């Protein structure tokens, strides 16, 4: 059983992490001296604004994430992202002695990563296949990207052989919509317009309607509670006030003149892309 990390450059084309009877685990490795690694970042995050001369390409991507509910069922969400691509020598990559089962555990310049690969088991052997083009998980912090860039290289000959899957026209449109929907500054702007009595138009999301209607006028907001005026008392206790001035929780819209024609919307029930367009914010 493998107990210590090992340089990928020393692993050859087959690395056995565990040869215990009935539990064999191996990694098959494509020949070559470098890995071409895709590093995904959600838009509207600090990592998406990263730049470095060792990034050999940047591509717009739509990421899909699988989630599990408490009852065991699952659902998917999508996010707009920017993927950075690095060429990293195998001499700078360590394979860790951990069984990832389609997520090979590794370390690059002190950053722990998981290579998203194909894998499967049969006849008591689980095999993961690490090609020279791979991905790591979305959402690494900015400090991690800087460490990866430090050991990455630029190689025009290698870069010319890279094939990217670019988004088509419909996917680019969806990417823009998802980008807008994830913009917390936009949501705060809409919330302030409501609070100032400027009555922005609110568009409901695809799966939502109220009495068959999809639009309304924002009339009030509900925010999270925030502690303010924190003060230490003489007896050692802490005194503070609670005010509803935190992040947006929901928005109430009016769909007609009657008080009965109002509904409170969760932020997830609003089509933020269309709402931004209707209020001339994009």
The low-pLDDT segments are: none
Helix content: 10-25%
* Amino-to-carboxy terminus distance: 57 Å
Provide the gyration radius in Å.
Answer: 25 Å
Largest sheet: 8 strands, mixed
- Structural class by helix and strand composition: alpha+beta
**Average pLDDT reading:** 91
Quote the beta fraction: 35-45%
- The backbone outline, from C-alpha atoms, is elongated
Question: Could you give the order of the helices and strands?
Answer: EEEEEEEEEEEEHHHHEEEEEEH
Query: If strands are numbered along the chain, what order do they take across the biggest sheet?
Result: 1-7-8-9-12-4-6-5
Number of helices, counting only DSSP H or I runs of 4 residues or more: 5
Number of strands: 18
- The total tally of domains equals 2
Task: Report on the architecture of this protein.
This protein is of the alpha+beta class and 282 residues long. The chain has two domains: 6-174, no CATH class; 183-278, no CATH class. The chain is 17% helix and 41% strand. It has five helices and 18 strands. The strands form four sheets. Strands 1-7-8-9-12-4-6-5 form an eight-stranded mixed β-sheet. The protein has a four-stranded mixed β-sheet with strand order 2-3-11-10, with no helix packed on it. Helix 3 crosses helix 5. It starts with 5 loop residues before the first strand and ends with a helix.
Briefly, what is this?
It contains five helices and 18 strands. The protein has helices spanning 142-151, 156-160, 169-181, 184-195, 272-278; strands at 6-7, 14-18, 24-29, 34-42, 57-68, 74-89, 93-95, 103-108, 111-116, 118-122, 125-130, 133-136, 201-203, 215-223, 226-232, 238-243, 248-254, 262-266.
């Amino acid at each position: 059983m493998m107990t210590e990390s090992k340089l990928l450059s020393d692993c050859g084309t087959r690395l056995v992490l565990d040869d215990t009877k009935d539990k064999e685990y191996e990694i098959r490795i494509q020949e070559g001296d470098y890995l071409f690694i895709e590093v995904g970042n959600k838009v509207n995050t600090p990592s998406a604004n990263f730049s470095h001369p060792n990034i050999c390409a940047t591509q717009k991507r739509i990421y899909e994430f699988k989630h599990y509910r408490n009852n065991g069922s699952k659902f998917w969400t999508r996010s707009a992202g920017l993927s950075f691509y690095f060429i990293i020598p195998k001499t700078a990559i360590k394979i860790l002695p951990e069984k990832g089962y389609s997520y090979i555990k590794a370390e690059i310049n002190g950053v722990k990563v998981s290579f998203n690969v194909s894998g499967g088991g049969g006849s008591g052997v689980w095999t993961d296949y690490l090609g020279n083009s791979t991905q790591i998980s979305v959402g690494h912090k900015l400090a991690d990207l800087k460490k990866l860039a430090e050991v990455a290289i630029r190689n025009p000959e290698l870069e010319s052989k890279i094939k990217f899957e670019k988004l088509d026209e419909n996917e680019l449109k969806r990417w823009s919509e998802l980008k807008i929907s994830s913009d917390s500054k936009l949501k705060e702007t809409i919330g302030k317009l409501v609070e100032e009595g400027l009555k922005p138009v609110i568009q409901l999301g695809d799966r939502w309607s109220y009495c068959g209607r999809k639009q309304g006028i924002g009339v009030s907001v509900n925010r999270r509670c925030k502690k303010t005026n924190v003060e230490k008392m003489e007896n050692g206790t802490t005194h503070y006030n609670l005010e509803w001035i935190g992040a947006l929780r929901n928005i109430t819209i009016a769909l007609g003149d009657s008080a009965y024609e109002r509904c409170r919307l969760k932020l997830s029930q609003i089509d933020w892309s269309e709402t931004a367009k209707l209020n001339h914010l994009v």
